[in-house]
């Protein structure tokens, strides 16, 4: 066998040769509208994955759950070898607002070297890069040097309600030495990113009801309660005008930021203007440390939706009968989503007992130690694949069910995103660069190769 | 000529005989979807009105305006006779939420003696009753004893932006001794109502913008502003938790409630349970005087719509790029809608200058003195028509452009609603009783007859 760098050169060449073929495979996957929030396209996505994985030589099963099925696959070279468990998700966000898409949301369309499609970055392009890496490695070099397991779920976009139980019930099947996830975007500087944790989330919905129907705001004005005001009055008891959360115990379990984490943050690159452009906010004016602290190490209290009364053109003079508020609250270690929900529940019961509160799902935050040797090996492989120094963050801003590895499976976990920072996941015109996709395939090959060379 | 009561008996008999024919005429009018907020059905409604009015012998013109046209008609018996100006509107509210209608919103459907259709109570059934009264009076008795003028507008449901200017420019055409309006519902006790004024309104829309697009609430959480929170933070500077408005000068011009008005309110009927049922709010628990004061003599600060982010099923994890708030603020004499808008504008400029504020229309409040002889004559005629003691209120809860008569035309104005209290105007399943419609036709005949007998 040739030495590492030579053999990886041959894999990289093969990937470039097969680019069009690999893109077509991705496009077929993207056209499946597997929107978990809308309960569609799920079975189709599973079937396609199974067929593809088996064609690559991955032994694959579609495993049912209380929700959408899991797709599990493995290539076991040697029971005693290092086992890498790769996690991803085949479900995507809803496409709305559909009218803001420049091309149909479920028809992959290339403009300026980027593929525009719902789910291309989050997470189908990244998931597909992992699978095509196995195919490329095997075709260019031969047998994998390590064991590989895959677990793809179909409910990540609705907060992975069944992943934790599935992992808890299948610990033996999933036993691994490292969990490897490619999801989310690279660093906004364009540098590759190695993430050692995620923020958690509690997603709530509050419904206030006034009268049984919308009433005329003149003939009934002042005499029936307005549910939009009721929600707003409740929100005022939950958060002050500085944005500080007033719910009892909300901040109780937050792990203090360590010196090492602060040092990591100080070492990160920062380009204010670039960030402003990438989030579409020209007035962005944070300082570097505030930015990283708020984005990765502090919780949020975000209104994701507020809907009450008339939202069309012009005026309609009504007292709405209902107001619905959707909030996603990002959590940091060691806040627990169930505990936070119970605290919110107690608060609502005290201040506005008539408002109905629903838990739409939660996810724990996670963090893996930066001191592990395997973390260094991955970082080195990522550097080699992208020919650029990776940025290493103690946490990402978003949420992934990373705690199921660190807390349930008790296995270290690293996240190496393959999507461009401006992927616009969850937004109209989501996109992934073609080069980000092929670089992702190469990166997985590098990681497998580097781990294969570890003394074990 | 027979004496008053005999001749009115013959008109009443004629109205009952012709009931089916009159209902068909109303149904044709109702099927025209003249929704001013959606700019449709306007010309069709004007044409139908003109044709009908001319068939009754009313000289009619469609008069253009900067917005929707006015339909003006007159029967001038004698330049020196008393002139009654009847006002109404041919436009209706939008039908949404359409899914809550039990029958198609623009197809009149009779259930339990009531006509269900958008606009049947507000205002087409009441407008049609006025016209059919003229037809009935002429056919049963002969020439009208007074002069009659009609003015029907097509923008009442969008706050009558052109009525005031039209009246100001056509004072001679519209010269009258009394303005008579049938709009809104009867008293909730079922008794006929004589109203001597209305609340005014300022309708505003506020738009807050965050980033240029919706951002992922995880990957961007805490680093782009949330426009829903921006609106809520602004609202908190505008109103305290007791509902008191904190906008500088908001209460400045409110005319103190007089002893006479308080006495009027004390004399009004009150049935708490019935009110609760009619507004669809089982927990309604106000006392009588609080109820009437809040409903007729105090301003409101109502949220008619709040729309931001995701409003569909399940969860979507975004920071919305936009939040839109619609508010209708009811005013009482002598609050002025332009003055109130300027005060709100100054407040927004001070507390949240980035939030865009739009004036979607305003209307002044009005009040006519209860001491006028003509008010007594109308009250007596209404009592005779409905065979029930009318309730007389200093103001109604809703808004009509009544100030154009009291302030612009300088003419006293009375409002005598013909629709049932539970007409559900502005709501799904709007309805008007068939008997309320025919009683309305009879009432206009009584009023014309009673005024014709006045010494003048």
From TrEMBL, chains A, B:
<keyword id="KW-0378">Hydrolase</keyword>
<dbReference type="GO" id="GO:0008233">
    <property type="term" value="F:peptidase activity"/>
</dbReference>
<keyword id="KW-0645">Protease</keyword>
<dbReference type="GO" id="GO:0046872">
    <property type="term" value="F:metal ion binding"/>
</dbReference>
<protein>
    <submittedName>
        <fullName>M20/M25/M40 family metallo-hydrolase</fullName>
    </submittedName>
</protein>
<dbReference type="GO" id="GO:0006508">
    <property type="term" value="P:proteolysis"/>
</dbReference>
<dbReference type="InterPro" id="IPR002933">
    <property type="entry name" value="Peptidase_M20"/>
</dbReference>
<keyword id="KW-0479">Metal-binding</keyword>
<feature type="domain" description="Peptidase M20 dimerisation">
    <location>
        <begin position="197"/>
        <end position="354"/>
    </location>
</feature>
<dbReference type="InterPro" id="IPR051458">
    <property type="entry name" value="Cyt/Met_Dipeptidase"/>
</dbReference>
<dbReference type="Pfam" id="PF01546">
    <property type="entry name" value="Peptidase_M20"/>
</dbReference>
<dbReference type="Pfam" id="PF07687">
    <property type="entry name" value="M20_dimer"/>
</dbReference>
<dbReference type="InterPro" id="IPR011650">
    <property type="entry name" value="Peptidase_M20_dimer"/>
</dbReference>
């Amino acid at each position: 066998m040739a030495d590492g760098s030579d053999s990886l050169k041959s894999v990289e060449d093969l990937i470039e040769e097969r680019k069009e073929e690999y893109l077509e495979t991705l496009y077929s996957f993207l056209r499946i509208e597997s929107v978990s929030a809308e309960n569609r396209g799920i079975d189709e996505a599973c079937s396609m994955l199974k067929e593809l994985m088996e064609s690559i030589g991955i032994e694959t099963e579609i495993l049912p759950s209380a929700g959408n099925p899991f797709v599990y696959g493995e290539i076991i070279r040697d029971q005693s070898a290092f086992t890498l468990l790769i996690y991803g998700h085949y479900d995507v966000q809803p496409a709305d607002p559909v009218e803001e898409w420049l091309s149909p949301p479920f028809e992959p369309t290339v403009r300026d070297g980027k593929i525009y499609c719902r789910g291309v970055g989050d997470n189908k392009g990244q998931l597909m890069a992992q699978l095509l890496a196995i195919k490329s490695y095997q075709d260019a070099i031969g047998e994998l040097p390590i064991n590989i397991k895959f677990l793809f779920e179909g409910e990540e976009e609705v907060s992975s309600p069944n992943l934790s139980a599935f992992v808890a019930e299948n610990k033996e099947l999933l036993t691994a030495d490292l969990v490897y996830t490619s999801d989310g975007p690279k660093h906004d500087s364009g540098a590759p990113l190695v993430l050692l944790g995620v923020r958690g989330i509690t997603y709530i919905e509050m419904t206030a009801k006034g009268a049984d129907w919308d009433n005329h705001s003149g003939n009934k004005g002042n005499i029936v309660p307005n549910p939009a005001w009721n929600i707003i009055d409740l929100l005022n008891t939950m958060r002050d005008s500085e944005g500080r959360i007033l719910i009892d115990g909300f901040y109780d379990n937050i792990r203090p930021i360590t010196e090492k984490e602060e040092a990591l943050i100080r070492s990160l690159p920062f380009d204010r203007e670039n960030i402003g452009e990438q989030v579409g906010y020209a007035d962005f004016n944070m300082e570097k440390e505030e930015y990283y602290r708020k984005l990765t190490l502090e919780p949020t209290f975000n209104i994701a939706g507020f809907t009450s009364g008339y939202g069309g053109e012009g005026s309609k003079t009504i007292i709405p009968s209902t107001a619905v508020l959707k909030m996603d609250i990002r959590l940091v270690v060691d806040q627990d989503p169930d505990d936070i929900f119970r605290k919110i529940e107690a608060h609502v019961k005290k201040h506005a007992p008539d408002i109905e509160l629903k838990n739409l799902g939660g996810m724990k935050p996670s963090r893996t130690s930066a001191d592990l040797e395997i973390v260094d090996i991955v970082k080195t492989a990522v550097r080699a694949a992208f020919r650029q120094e990776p940025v290493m963050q103690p946490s990402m801003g978003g949420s992934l069910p990373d705690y199921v590895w660190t807390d349930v499976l008790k296995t270290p976990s690293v996240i190496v995103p393959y999507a461009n920072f401006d992927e616009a996941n969850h937004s109209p015109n989501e996109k992934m660069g073609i080069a980000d996709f092929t670089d992702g395939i190469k990166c997985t090959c590098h990681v497998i190769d580097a781990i294969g060379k570890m003394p074990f």
